[in-house]
Design goal:
By secondary structure, the chain is α+β, with helices and mostly antiparallel strands. The strands form 2 sheets. Strands 1, 3, 5, 6, 8 and 10 form a 6-stranded mixed beta sheet that branches. A hairpin with a 5-residue loop joins strand 5 and strand 6. The radius of gyration is 30 Å and the shape is elongated. It starts with a helix and ends in a 12-residue tail after the last helix. The N terminus is likely disordered.
């Protein structure tokens, strides 16, 4: 009877360990699933254009310099009427973890009014006016003399939340798009053209996360706005304070995140859960089945 009692204790202990192991595994899976769903439902998970045509409509003009660039939100479609030879500028915001895709379409004049082929190009610059290289796309294209439109595209590198000062990595902030013609017959300069510009992006996830974040996004004019706010707060005349106000330009609809959340949190939590499960499993293996039946209870 004593031997049977010891075996029962060992079996009961083993069953309890395995129940704890299964419960911890289930809890870990539930936690990871719920956290993943929260990230997928979050506003910063993707920055793709909405399905409503009204939301896609954007500005109907473009700037002619960096300082006069027209603000364009991701997912909007900006249009402009210009003359061949003009420089057209738009500016859009891009946050940490986003890989932006810039697409432009140029509507060319009627072929009867043109005298040859033309070459068009889009260039993208960050908030420090550093030219950003395209990973892939059709950044430069040549339009035949009888072409009606020419389409350009540029897929940028993923925006990083932080980078070394000497690096040329894309950082959160404003990005300028410049559309211009590189080569066309001199007699075609000044002919009317139309332009469409759209910017979309996708969230690339934790593969591009870094341990750090900028104090402020790279938005030109931020220091001027801070100074203007300080001057306005020390002035008793509110109208004069409004006159000192400086525009910051565009920023994301849901604000700048600057990498405050990354899916590395999920991997960290998952690693902790797996480590706990491994500890429980290892303990169950080394614990054994209880007191051997050949050992008297008093020993």
């Amino acid at each position: 009877m004593r031997r049977t009692h010891h075996r029962a204790n060992g079996v009961t202990h083993t069953n309890g360990v395995w129940r704890a192991f299964a419960g911890a595994l289930l809890a870990g899976l539930t936690l990871l699933t719920s956290a993943g769903a929260a990230v997928a439902d979050g506003p910063s998970a993707t920055a793709s254009p909405g399905g409503d045509d009204a939301e896609k409509s954007g500005p109907t003009e473009a700037g002619t310099t960096f300082r006069t660039a027209t603000s364009l939100q991701q997912g909007q479609r900006g249009t402009a009427e210009a003359s061949a030879g003009d420089y057209l500028y738009w500016v859009f915001p891009a946050d940490a973890g986003q890989r932006a895709t810039v697409e432009a379409t140029v509507r060319l004049p009627e072929s009867a009014t043109r005298h040859g082929a033309s070459t068009w190009q889009i260039d993208v610059y960050d908030g420090l006016r550093r030219r950003q290289a395209c990973m892939y796309g059709h950044q430069t294209r040549k339009a035949a003399a009888d072409a009606a439109t020419v389409e350009l595209s540029c897929v940028l590198r993923t925006v990083r939340a932080w980078s070394e000062p000497w690096a040329d990595d894309p950082l959160p902030g404003s990005y300028y798009v410049r559309l211009t013609v590189l080569d066309l017959p001199a007699t075609d300069l000044g002919l009317p053209v139309g332009a469409e510009m759209t910017v979309t992006s996708s969230d690339r996830g934790g593969a591009h996360d870094v341990d750090g974040a900028l104090a402020e996004p790279l938005v030109p004019g931020a220091s001027s706005v801070d100074q203007a706010s300080d001057d306005a707060s020390s002035d008793s005349d509110p109208a004069d304070g409004d006159a000192r106000r400086v525009s910051l330009g565009s920023e994301p609809d849901d604000g700048w995140s600057s990498g405050w959340w990354t899916d590395r949190w999920l991997w960290t939590v998952g690693g902790g859960v797996l480590a706990a499960l491994a500890a429980v499993f290892g303990y169950s293996l080394t614990r054994g089945g209880g007191r051997p039946s050949r050992v008297p209870p008093g020993v």
